[in-house]
Design brief:
The structure holds two protein chains of two kinds. By secondary structure, chain A is an alpha/beta fold. Chain A has two domains: 194 residues, 3-Layer(aba) Sandwich (Rossmann fold), CATH 3.40.50.300; 106 residues, Magnesium chelatase subunit I, C-Terminal domain (Helicase, Ruva Protein, domain 3, Orthogonal Bundle), CATH 1.10.8.80. Chain A has 15 helices and eleven strands. The longest helix of chain A has 26 residues. Chain B is of the alpha+beta class. Chain B has two domains: 155 residues, no CATH class; 124 residues, no CATH class. Chain B is built from eight helices and ten strands. In chain B, helix 4 runs antiparallel to helix 5 and helix 5 runs parallel beside helix 8. At the A-B interface, helix 13 and helix 15 of A face helix 5 and helix 7 of B.
């Protein structure tokens, strides 16, 4: 009976997840792959780094997601003078002329907070990073003499990768707290670009967001369902061996005969994926398998999230850091191309 | 007018000589024949006709074309009055050879009457004369003495001439002088047969090589060691147990990876057949294999009883594609 109930839950939630995807895809065009990855992150309960230029629709995308999963959406802009306190509280003069203190964007919605968007996080100082990373890991914060719990919060952070002045790069340990780094690029399709330019419905972000039905998912049940999902989707021993090979290949790609055209593979990687990263990889792969209506993880499920979960975790020698985006993409592609399902 | 060559002159001279000889021969033969018609019995004394009378004289009917070894017979019948008689001892001796004419046989028969005796004498000659050209020979004249009477009577049988024909015309010389250079026998040309045989053998070898190429499991030819050929061999050697199903699948996966140059998964099947069009006809089978393989490897679901047969069939078909036979 328990299994039957779980099966029904899995089916119902999958229907809702796919409905959410379709709803967001209807307003955010050309980002189907990013939307699928965000869906996976939501059900894997992982935080997300967004990679991409300005004006590609990240805010609209996140607002649409927040509307679809319910709960509150909060946002803060990373600036060089942003202090941790700015996340926690907000001071102002009240109507009576006396100073007032309210919760900041992180605490304002309380437990209803489902999506927190930190725009240009690398413009904020490391102190802000430290606070943010702690909240991301612990999902609670002590302020105003009480504990604020943020159990349903998923953080989306954008990095400005164009400008380097007055930026504070997120260290590798901090990047590792994010489950995925999802690229959001301008669509290549010419018709989509034309639509983005000339279709007036894309000029009103708020109106677009309103087109997404609210509460497709129930944000406050996502944690429980995620646990159910992770317990239900299985990984065979063969797949575990395959995933272990992938992990080792991120640490020592040369041992697997992997080469890169534009870098010395022996000197490129300083540190491969972390255990936490590989755990997140399997977690996300299980969600993908569930979305594909399977009860077992296939290598294709790992492939679907491998780059997004592994690339930002790789630590390159400093001489290669400037080309991190291209090199990490090339390396993860080579790893997937070289590592076969082991015959053990 | 054409001047005859020396050879032609020689031939003309020979022809002229033969013509003269024939003319002379004709005259001589005519003389001989004329002599035959005349009485051939004479007596040295007068009045012999009363004691001796020639009744018949038969010479050979043919006087030309006589060759060495031929027998010639003369038959003489005479009537001799008594008391004369023909003594056997007076007859020519058998075996006498005169000018190449040998008396091969002599027979004498006699019939007695009241006053006379009729003798029939048969002389059988054999020609042993040798000549390289036609010649006039003769059966020798015979003189046979009679006895018993008072007078010495002699029966004279005239010679009989005939044309001797040599077995071989012309001068007899050494065979060596007539030898002609002997040409080797014309050989039947076998080159065409050899070419057809070689072509046939080549076709046979090509056919055999083709059959080997299509059906051989082992790497007998340099281009037979393809990835799927190896996978087929490995799978065929595996024990057909549940435990070895995964290994069999992985052998085929490794073959796909080798051909593709990278790890191939279900999502890459279309890319694979696009890059390797020889496998295009098996696109659905390859996709089905990947689906089946994922179920077996990643869900633990065991294959059906025909698992190995199906896998071997697919591996063989993939090998055919690899060898560009499909």
């Amino acid at each position: 009976m328990q299994t039957l109930v779980s099966q029904n839950q899995l089916t119902d939630w999958r229907d809702h997840a796919l409905k959410l995807e379709q709803a967001v895809q209807s307003v955010i065009v050309g980002q189907d792959k990013a939307i699928r990855h965000i869906t996976i992150a939501i059900f894997a309960r992982g935080h997300v780094l967004l990679e991409g230029g300005v004006g590609v629709g990240k805010t609209t995308l996140l607002q649409s997601i927040a509307r679809g999963i319910g709960g509150s959406y909060e946002r803060i802009e990373g600036t060089v003078d942003l202090m941790p306190n700015d996340l926690v509280y907000h001071t102002y003069l009240g109507s009576d002329g006396r100073p007032q203190i309210d919760e900041g964007p992180l605490l304002r919605s309380g437990e209803r907070l489902s999506v927190f968007f930190f725009n240009e996080i690398n413009r904020a100082r490391p102190q802000v990073h430290a606070l943010m990373l702690r909240v991301m890991a612990e999902r609670h914060l002590y302020a105003f003499k009480r504990e604020y719990r943020l159990p349903h919060m998923v953080v989306f952070a954008d990095r400005n990768q164009v400008e380097k002045n007055e930026t504070f790069e997120i260290p590798s340990a901090a990047r590792d707290r994010f489950m995925m780094e999802i690229p959001i690029h301008i669509p290549d399709d010419r018709d989509l670009r034309r639509a983005l330019m000339f279709d007036t419905r894309f000029q009103h972000a708020e109106a677009l967001t309103q087109q997404v039905p609210s509460g497709i998912l129930q944000y406050d049940q996502l944690n429980a369902f995620s646990d159910l999902l992770q317990g239900h989707i299985q990984a065979s021993e063969t797949l575990e061996e395959y995933a272990l090979d992938l992990w080792e290949a991120t640490q020592d790609p040369a041992r697997f005969g992997i080469t890169l055209d534009s870098a010395d593979i022996h000197r490129l990687v300083q540190a491969g994926a972390s255990p936490r990263g590989m755990g997140m990889l399997l977690k996300a792969a299980r969600v993908h398998a569930w979305l594909m209506d399977r009860e077992h993880v296939y290598p294709e499920d790992i492939h679907a999230v491998f780059h997004e979960i592994i690339a930002h975790r790789l630590v390159f020698q400093s001489m290669y850091e400037n080309r991190r985006t291209a090199l990490s993409r090339e390396l993860t592609s080579r790893i997937l191309a070289h590592i076969a399902v082991p015959a053990r | 007018m054409t001047i005859p060559s020396r050879t032609t002159w020689t031939a003309l001279l020979r022809l002229l000589t033969l013509t003269v000889l024939f003319a002379l021969g004709g005259l001589a033969t005519g003389t001989a024949l004329a002599g035959q018609t005349m009485p051939a019995v004479t007596s040295p004394e007068n009045g012999a006709d009363t004691e001796l009378r020639v009744l018949e004289l038969h010479n050979p009917k043919r006087s030309t074309g006589i060759q060495i070894g031929d027998y010639l017979e003369r038959r003489l019948q005479v009537e001799i009055a008594q008391p004369y008689q023909l003594a056997i001892s007076a007859l020519p001796l058998k075996g006498a050879n005169r000018h190449g004419i040998e008396l091969a046989d002599v027979r004498l028969e006699k019939t007695s009457a009241s006053k006379s005796t009729i003798y029939t004498l048969l002389l059988r000659y054999q020609v042993f004369a040798a000549s390289t050209s036609p010649a006039i020979l003769q059966l020798p004249a015979e003189r046979i003495a009679l006895n018993g009477g008072p007078k010495a009577l002699v029966l004279e049988v005239p010679a009989w001439h005939f044309w001797f024909s040599p077995l071989a015309a012309g001068n007899v010389g050494l065979a060596k002088t007539n030898l002609q250079p002997q040409l080797p026998p014309a050989l039947i040309s076998l080159s065409g047969h050899y070419q057809r045989l070689a072509a046939g053998l080549l076709c046979l070898l090509a056919g055999l090589a083709g059959l080997v190429y299509v059906h051989a499991d082992r790497r007998w030819l340099p281009f037979m060691g393809g990835a799927f050929a190896q996978a087929y061999r490995h799978i065929r050697r595996l024990p057909r147990t549940q435990q070895h199903q995964a290994q069999a699948l992985l052998h085929l996966h490794q073959a796909f990876d080798r051909v593709h140059g990278a790890s191939l998964f279900a999502a890459g099947v279309d890319e694979f057949v696009a890059a390797h069009p020889q496998f295009l006809s098996l696109r659905e089978d390859i996709a089905a294999f990947y689906a089946q393989s994922s179920q077996r490897l990643f869900t633990g679901q065991a294959g059906d009883p025909g698992f190995f047969d199906d896998l071997l069939t697919l591996a063989r078909r993939l090998r055919h594609c690899e060898r560009r036979l499909a």
